[in-house]
Amino acid sequence: MSHVSRATRAACVVIATAALTGQLTFAQPNSQPNPYRTIENYFTLPDGRKLGGTPAVETDRDGRSIWAFERCGGDTCEGSAVAPLLKFDASGKLVKAFGANMFVAPHGLYVDRDGNVWVTDGQGAQGKGQQVFKFSPEGKVLMTLGKPGVGGEGPDTFNRPSDVLVAPNGDVFVADGHGGDTNARIVKFSKNGTFIKAWGKKGSGRGEFDTPHTLAMDSQGRLFVGDRGNNRIQIFDQQGTFLDEWKQFGRPSGISIDKNDILYSTDHQSTEQTNPGWKKGIRIGSAKDGRVTAFIVDPDANPSQEGIAADNAGNVYGSMTGGRGIKKYVK
After folding, report:
1. What is the mean pLDDT of the chain?
2. Total domains, the chain
């Protein structure tokens, strides 16, 4: 009896230790069920215009409408007069568009609790780009961060900013960098745009990044960073202290966490070379304990879903860059 008790106690210690270090064993990659069906071409534009590469999609504060940030019908907005910031109602009809002649390479998108729309322009050309913009819901520019067309790593410059997020208290977080010789850091600003701090550098250690591609925040206020080049999500407090890393969501390009702490993550880059054993698609699970509960396999021959969002009804939206457009997934 004492032997069994010791074994039981030992097992409990192993489980507790694993939980603390974020190393609990989860289900095998790609093994979760897919309870969704796919709806193609749900969102329509007037005059037959087609969506271009769409790196980001987001739900409005009403939980029903959908915002998309697309590349002016193609792969870039450079030289285009098309408005790339689009709002659709719940039926998929376009109800608002703005941002024409402002962007080079639309990338990150976030809607704050007041309905303001934040975006990142991920490249620079001809005096534009390398910036973060805050718009009112009607399209008025309320704030800009960074210098137009200027790349850098100082407190007032970015080098290919990938995403932006606003905390409940108004602090602004920017995922600054997109691989290669660009930046690899998180930059924090106050709600009025004052630089507070930055952390991270190129690497694979804790608090280091290789393409910090996407940001999300859970109900506890923890900051989730999709560290795509390192095949992981890193979790920090809002001061930049490392808390944990999760690899069970694949190679994340987009992360979204809803009000119930359900985490949605897109993966369009996993291969046997980049992330052996993992398939491309959307993984859905818990931001509380990290368990993956559903997996939507991407059936496209050339998957390119980067952006991800979920509305209040539980519908999931994946936006595509190479494939262009937005897919809707319904349970």
Report:
1. 92
2. 1
